[in-house]
């Protein structure tokens, strides 16, 4: 056989599989691994058996009375069925709770519409603006014959979703501007960007919410007040913008200098180069840290109780104060945790899907 053909064939062959990388070898490859795997499986089986016994076999299901929950040894799912609307919508008027339910559906529909990369056009910003204005009008009322409901009566899942969308939707463009200013050559803009980013990143979010709740009303003139929902939204937006700015700055630093030189050689101005060349590549490089920051901000909305708002977690705590029922903390927090998990896990899987598509070159 021709030696060159043999060399070409050997180059084209895939490398032999590594025995140490196989899952079976990592779990049962040696005695310590085998013992650890068996011990972990035994503990998992024991925990799963007790969980099934508590959550299914001895549980109290919807339709049962509160007294049955007091005598039962298992989960009290009847409490969740009774308090579901209060957990999801807080103290919003019961007769008007179709409005926060519609708002949750609208935000979900807008999110699903945005997941399609083909919809990433300038019109998407207008769609979100119109959608969020419609959500706020529906929640607040006072138009089209709807009863007016103050923000003090809002609560539950709609507040969590509205604050998360506000913090991320407004914080991302503000963070991009801060990142560009920090990377720019204008001394004053760079100093302001550095000052804002480092100041906000050096403070915990709870301190910003305290300032929005206590310090800001003192600084305002007499008779001038700012709605608590707006104060919480501003604090969350500023906080997310500072962290997103550093994420975007990392993506900007990863752009090769040759890309900038080629853009200048083509006659592109600074704004054209930034919009058409720099930012698209930078955002693709930081999908994972952007997703991490977005997930953190969604979970940080549980701190808005400080400014007098009842988010999903706070509404669940309020539902537990009913003296006619026992206090099934585990069941309530499991339900709330499952909602947070669905939102955050879905966002994480979507970011992984985007990364795979970008690597394959399927998204432009």
For the largest beta-sheet, the strand count, sense and barrel status come to:
2 strands, parallel
User: How far apart are the first and last residues' alpha carbons, in Å?
Assistant: 46 Å
Strand content: under 5%
Judged by helices, strands and strand pairing, the structural class is: mainly alpha
Order of strands across the main sheet? 1-2
The helix tally amounts to 16
Write down the oligomeric state: single chain
> Any idea what the radius of gyration is?
26 Å
Describe it for me?
- This protein is an all-alpha fold.
- The protein is built from 16 helices and 2 strands.
- It has helices at 3-12, 23-28, 31-57, 66-71, 77-89, 98-115, 122-140, 157-183, 187-201, 205-219, 228-253, 257-265, 270-285, 287-300, 312-319, 329-360, and strands at residues 155-156, 310-311.
- It has a two-stranded parallel ribbon with strand order 1-2.
- The two termini are 46 Å apart.
- Residues 6-11 have low confidence and may be disordered.
Write the layout of secondary structure elements.
Layout: H1 3-12, H2 23-28, H3 31-57, H4 66-71, H5 77-89, H6 98-115, H7 122-140, E1 155-156, H8 157-183, H9 187-201, H10 205-219, H11 228-253, H12 257-265, H13 270-285, H14 287-300, E2 310-311, H15 312-319, H16 329-360
Parallel strand pairs: 1-2
What is the gist of this entry?
With 364 residues, this protein is an all-alpha fold. 72% of the residues lie in helices and 1% in strands. The chain contains 16 helices and 2 strands.
């Amino acid at each position: 056989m021709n030696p060159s053909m043999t060399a070409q064939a050997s180059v084209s062959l895939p490398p032999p599989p590594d025995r140490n990388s196989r899952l079976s070898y990592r779990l049962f490859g040696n005695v310590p691994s085998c013992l650890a795997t068996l011990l972990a499986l035994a503990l998992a089986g024991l925990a799963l058996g007790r969980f099934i016994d508590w959550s299914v076999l001895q549980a109290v299901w919807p339709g049962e009375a509160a007294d049955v929950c007091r005598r039962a040894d298992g989960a009290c799912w009847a409490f969740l069925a009774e308090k579901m609307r209060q957990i999801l919508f807080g103290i919003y008027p019961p007769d008007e709770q179709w409005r926060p339910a519609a708002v949750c559906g609208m935000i979900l529909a807008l999110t699903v519409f945005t997941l399609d990369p083909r919809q990433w056009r300038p019109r998407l910003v207008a769609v979100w603006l119109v959608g969020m204005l419609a959500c706020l009008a529906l929640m607040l009322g006072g138009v089209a014959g709807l009863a007016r409901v103050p923000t003090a009566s809002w609560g539950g899942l709609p507040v969590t979703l509205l604050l998360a969308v506000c913090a991320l939707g407004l914080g991302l463009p503000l963070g991009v501007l801060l990142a560009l200013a920090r990377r720019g050559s204008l001394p004053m803009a760079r100093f302001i960007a550095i000052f804002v980013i480092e100041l906000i990143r050096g403070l915990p979010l709870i301190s910003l919410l305290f300032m929005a709740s206590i310090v800001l009303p003192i600084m305002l003139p007499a008779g001038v007040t700012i709605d608590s929902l707006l104060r919480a939204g501003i604090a969350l937006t500023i906080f997310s913008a500072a962290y997103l700015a550093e994420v975007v700055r990392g993506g900007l630093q990863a752009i090769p200098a040759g890309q900038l030189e080629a853009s200048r050689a083509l006659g592109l101005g600074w704004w054209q180069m930034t919009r058409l060349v720099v930012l698209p590549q930078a955002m693709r490089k930081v999908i994972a840290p952007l997703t991490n920051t977005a997930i953190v901000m969604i979970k940080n909305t549980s701190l808005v109780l400080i400014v007098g708002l009842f988010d999903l977690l706070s509404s669940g705590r309020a539902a537990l104060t009913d003296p006619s029922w026992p206090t099934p903390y585990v069941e309530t927090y499991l339900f709330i945790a499952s909602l947070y998990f669905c939102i955050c896990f879905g966002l994480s899987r979507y970011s992984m899907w985007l990364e795979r598509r970008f690597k394959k070159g399927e998204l432009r």
